[in-house]
Predict the 3D structure of the following.
Amino acid sequence: AAVDRVDYPYDFDPRTREAHLAAAEASHPARMNDALKIVTDNNFCIKCHLLGDFVPTGDISARAPQLDDVSRRIRPEYALDWIANPKRILPYTGMPVNIPPDKPVSQELFRGDSQQQLNGVVDLLLNFDRFMGSKTSIKPLIKPQAPASHQSGAQSQDAAQ
C-alpha cells in the first residue's frame, strides 16, 4: 500500500458494491453463474487454480493460487489487469491470456464479448464468498433438535436452583 500510495486496508471498490452487481445482473441475467461456468470449465481457470475444495490434477509445481480468496489478496484493478493479460505484468508467468480481446470464450459458457466476459470473471472472483454463500444452504447440514418435553424443562429449572 505504501509503495502504491493507496489507503490500507483497501476497502472500496464499486465492483464489490451491491448496486454495481445489481446493475450488471440487470443487463446480463445470470451473469455470475455464467462467469462461474468460465472459471470451472476445464479449459480455463481450474485447469491450474485451486478453488474451494477442488485441487487440479497434474504436477504440484504447476498449481496456481487459490481463486476463492482473490478478494482478500488482490486489488480489483490489479485483478482485472492480471486476468486480461498476465504476461504484460509478469512476462515469465505461466498463466495464459484466457480471454483474448479479439476472441471471446464460447458463447455457451458466457454470452457476450471478451470485455463482458472478463469483467464477469473479475466480478465473480471479487465477490466469490457472497456469491457462493447465496448458492449454498446450511439447512440440510443441521440436524433437527429433538422436541423438549415439559418434564425435562422443569427438571432443568429445578437443577439450576
